[in-house]
Amino acid sequence: MPMYQVKPVCGSHMETELPTCMYRLPNVHAQQGGSSTSEHALQNGEVDPAVKALEARQDEIMRKLYELKAAVEGLAKTVTTPDADLDLTVSSSLSSQSPTSTTFKGVTDLDTLMGKDLGALRDIVINANPAHPPLTLLVLHSVLCQRYRVLSTVHVHSSAASVPPQLLSCLGPRHADSYARQMFQLGFTLIWKDVPKLQMKFSVQNMCPVEGEANVARFLFKLLSPYPSDPAVATLVDSWVDMAFFQLAEGSAKERAAVLRALNSALGRSPWLAGPEFSLADIACYCCVLQSGPASSTPTNVQRWIKSCENLGHFSPAKLFLK
Amino acid sequence: MTKEEAQGSTEEEQQAQSKKGLKKQQKEAEKAAKKAEKQAKLAAEQQSTEEDDFAKDRYGVLAMVQSQQKLDRVLVRVQDFTPEKADQLIWLRARVHTSRAKGKQCFLVLRQQQFNVQALVAVGDRASKQMVKFAANITKESIVDVEAFVRKVEQKIESCSQQDVELHIERIFVVSQAEARLPLQLEDAVRPDGEGEEEGRATVNQDTKLDNRVIDLRTTTSQAIFRLQSGVCMLFRDTLTKKGFVEIQTPKIISAASEGGANVFTVSYFKTSAYLAQSPQLYKQMCICADFDKVFCVGPVFRAEDSNTHRHLTEFVGLDIEMAFSYHYHEVIDSITDTMVQIFKGLRDNFQTEIQMVNKQFPSEPFKFLEPTLRLEYTEGLAMLHEAGVEMGDEEDLSTPNEKLLGRLVKEKYDTDFYVLDKYPLAVRPFYTMPDPNNPKYSNSYDMFMRGEEILSGAQRVHDAQLLTDRAIHHQIDLEKIKAYIDSFRYGAPPHGGGGIGLERVCMLYLGLHNIRQTSMFPRDPKRLTP
């Protein structure tokens, strides 16, 4: 017979689970993706999907931020500039290029424009007089550089007397790969020479030389985007280009004043000279206005238009040059 | 015949005879008359010579200058005769270019190199008739000492270089007399070819000129050409020295033919034979391996090529450059082209008179160039030739007509007479040319052209002994013969490149001449060994 009866402390019958294996290792061969169990195998440096997702989210946020930033910038510009590519700037995705490169719409193909690629650099040779540097062409050159891989070189011809150093560096610094001419799509060779009129030579067999800054500008512009298909607009652009070169640049003070008045009235009607889109006419007129010197009597529309042009950023080489 | 007829005929004969006789008599009479006239003239002349010659001591033939005495006389150069010297009494020594008598006066043209001046002897109280006669009879090309007054003239003397003055001769002495019959006349030698044909005047054949080089070199054209050539050499040395180059002299008698066995002259060398160097290539490279960094050398080059062309000589002056570079062989091209541009600029700015003088006889377009020099790639050149309709393979070398055509195309497009063609195909270059790193078909080699003709062939050299051996084996060259050459790269060699130009060819092409013998003083070609 027991002395004391104590109530049992713990339950009478407890089933303990005895483990059958000593260590449990994670399964090396498991190929299940997407499950987020902590025992899921991580193979070959694969990043934990959670981290990956986090990174992806972060990238997405940054991208959206950049887009917003670009949109705000574009909007800021449109406040002062009747920007032709307002739509594009706001909705452009992930484009790290400056908005200016998308200014010129239209598909252009070097082969159709310049003839079959014969396996060698397509070199455009421009002979210019150092006394009359062609600003329009410098502007077009910088736009071309954004579009294509351009090899730019500047030479001084033996007929030209000494040339100021800024003319020697007007096409920008020498490209790092300039020792391999074959790597470039287009060559832009500017030769400072004692010529009466600016001249361009491209394909000696098939083309006669193109004379006059206006005509060369037209040729180079066609490499960027085709002329407006509407003949009326195309003619308008042409007439502005001619007016810029003949009357603004070379005309008497009276003619220049007349052109400025015409510019003023045209710009009152539309944001750009040839309608709602930026075109060669604006480039040509801007450069000629700039070259003829700052006038205190520039009409208000023209001044506004000048600021819009500068906002676009194409014209920095021209401005730098004139300084 | 009847008697009467016979009689008639004899009478006729007699009449004919008498006619003939009359004629004969007349002729004899004329002859006699002429003789008498001549004799009378001679007598008269003798009389005049026997007249008192008061100017006897103011003219004559000097005794041969054997340094009998040291005179302190100052001789004035012809180019210094300007109106500033008017009315001065001066001495000069010059050649008699022409002399012609006109009544009581004799006009002489006295010449010194490219300058000439008119001189005048007139019968008066200072000069006698005999003196004028003596002056008129001095043979052309004789060297004379003249004392004269410089006088201004009203009308410019177009035919002389000194147009504003003329000399009035006080004394005239012959220092060295020239033979009366000259093998060629200087005016003919200077006459442009076209003019000669048009006006029916004589021009001188090139062979005659070369055979009598001593006289031909006296012409204004030749003087101008060789002064310009001297200028090229001087500018070459000066430009390179300024860039830090060192001038070296390399041996010309060598033991092994450097460029290939065919075109080399053999000389007997004591018990064996040796060769005359085709180029200083090997020694330039050895100098680079000897740490001279940048070298150039000016010296003769001997090529035994049996080419009788307008641009080949068997011996010519080679101006060679070699330099070590840091990373890219374009550093070498830039250096060489800059040197060439400095030479062209120097000639354009300082030798304009010489260039104009040569252009008078050999008209040509002035030489144009770009700075920095235009550099096109071989593929671009091929593309331009294809566009012009020439069929050529990718790895073919340019033939001479193709080179000329390419030169014209480049001139049309870029308006330059001087350009570089880079990246030649490896197959057409010598074994020591460095292959292109990315494309084994091409090489790091280049040629430079003036007026469409090649003046320089250069490249980055192989500076690794193993690669050099491989390339030599590939070109089937006997390794024993070039062992010394390969050995020079075994003890550390920097990457280097260079090129060489021919002085005569550069001058010929700069001036737009058509035959290299015109720019070589005493040319050597397969058919000519003298003078």
Secondary structure layout:
The complex is a heterodimer of chains A (323) and B (531).
Chain A: H1 49-80, H2 86-91, H3 110-114, E1 122-128, H4 135-147, E2 150-157, H5 165-168, E3 186-192, E4 199-201, E5 210-211, H6 213-222, H7 231-249, H8 253-269, H9 280-291, H10 300-312, H11 316-322
Parallel strand pairs in A: 1-3, 2-3
Antiparallel strand pairs in A: 1-4, 4-5
Helix pairs in contact in A: 4-6, 4-9, 4-11, 7-8, 7-9, 8-10
Chain B: H1 3-50, E1 59-61, E2 89-102, E3 105-112, E4 115-122, H2 129-137, E5 143-152, E6 165-176, H3 186-190, H4 193-199, H5 206-211, H6 213-216, H7 220-242, E7 246-247, E8 253-254, E9 266-269, E10 272-276, H8 281-289, E11 294-302, E12 315-324, H9 330-350, H10 352-361, E13 370-371, E14 374-377, H11 378-387, H12 400-414, E15 418-422, E16 445-450, E17 453-460, H13 465-474, H14 483-487, E18 496-502, H15 503-511
Parallel strand pairs in B: 1-6, 4-6, 7-11, 14-15
Antiparallel strand pairs in B: 2-3, 2-5, 3-4, 5-6, 8-10, 9-10, 11-12, 12-18, 15-16, 16-17, 17-18
Helix pairs in contact in B: 7-9, 7-10, 7-15
Question: Could you list some keywords that capture this structure?
Answer:
heterodimer, A: 323 residues, 11 helices, B: 531 residues, alpha+beta, 8-stranded mixed β-sheet, 5-stranded mixed barrel, 18 strands
Largest sheet of chain B: 8 strands, mixed
Individual helix count of chain A? 11
Largest interface: A-B, 24 and 29 residues
Ranges of chain B with pLDDT <50 over ≥5 residues? none
Beta content of chain A: 5-15%
Give the neighbour order of strands across the main sheet of chain A: 2-3-1-4-5
GO cellular component, one term (chain A): cytosol
Keywords (chain A): Apoptosis, Cytoplasm, Developmental protein, Differentiation, Nucleus, Phosphoprotein, Protein biosynthesis, Ubl conjugation
Pfam families (chain A): AIMP2_LysRS_bd, GST_C, Thioredoxin_16
InterPro entries (chain A): AIMP2, AIMP2_LysRS-bd, AIMP2_thioredoxin, Glutathione-S-Trfase_C_sf, GST_C
